[in-house]
Specification:
Elements (H helix, E strand, L loop, with lengths): L2 E6 L4 H10 L7 E5 L10 E7 L7 H6 L7 E8 L5 H12 L7 E9 L4 H13 L4 H13 L5 H27 L2
Parallel strand pairs: 1-2, 1-3, 3-4, 4-5
Bound molecules: flavin mononucleotide.
The site of flavin mononucleotide has 19 residues, from helix 1 and strand 4.
Length: about 180
């Protein structure tokens, strides 16, 4: 089974996740590892990943996703806000709209990813203007929490997740070849 890992990462968090997935793929099966390209690399299974950008995938990933058709796909991402399955689900529902319905979506994975220092500086400056704003204090707390992610536990989780995706994909390939 040919596998492609295609991801969009600005500061390296999502790339770290992509590298972890790569470890699961036998060398001879991996046909592509890198950023979205003009020409879609041909594969049976696509691991597609992005950092979260204003509540969605990155612009480059959003314009790449619709190019994949009639394949098996799995989506992975990092986000500045973490710890809530509901939040991740909401994010993925948005991304999913860009995935062509002819594909089989085998699953998705999210974890938290640290944010640049400028984000903290912006919160701090806003807090001096609006000291009563509780959401800013929550955002600052979250910023600190995010600083250690992706951590070892995140990498272990993505490791398990990608293993389960590969199992699902292999099963589907077997069913397909039995039906031929
Ligand atoms: C322009 C921009 C917009 C972002 N928007 C969100 C957002 O809407 N929700 C969120 O949870 N994180 C958001 N983040 C945080 C990133 O998704 C997070 O830090 C991610 O791990 C960065 O991944 P990367 O290192 O692969 O670029 C944003 C970051 C940037 C730079």
């Amino acid at each position: 089974m040919k596998v492609a890992i295609i991801y969009s990462s600005k500061t390296g968090n999502t790339e770290k996740i992509a590298q972890e997935i790569k470890k699961q793929i036998p060398k001879e099966d991996l046909v592509f590892f890198g950023k979205p390209t003009e020409i879609v690399p041909q594969a049976d299974l696509y691991f597609l990943g992005s950092f979260t950008d204003k509540g969605n995938a990155s612009k480059e990933m959003l314009s790449f996703l619709p190019k994949i058709k009639q394949k098996q796909v799995a989506y992975f991402a990092t986000a500045g806000y973490g710890g809530s399955k509901e939040y991740y689900q909401t994010l993925f529902e948005r991304v999913k709209k860009q995935i062509n319905s002819s594909n089989q979506i085998l699953g998705y994975f999210y974890c938290q990813g640290k944010m640049p220092l400028q984000v903290k500086e912006r919160y701090l400056s806003l807090l001096t203007q609006h000291p009563e704003d509780k959401t800013l204090s929550v955002s600052l707390e979250n910023f600190e929490k995010a600083q250690t992610h992706p951590d070892e536990k995140d990498l272990q989780e993505v490791n398990h997740w990608s293993f389960s995706i590969l199992q699902k994909a292999n099963k589907k390939e077997e069913v397909k070849s039995c039906n031929l």
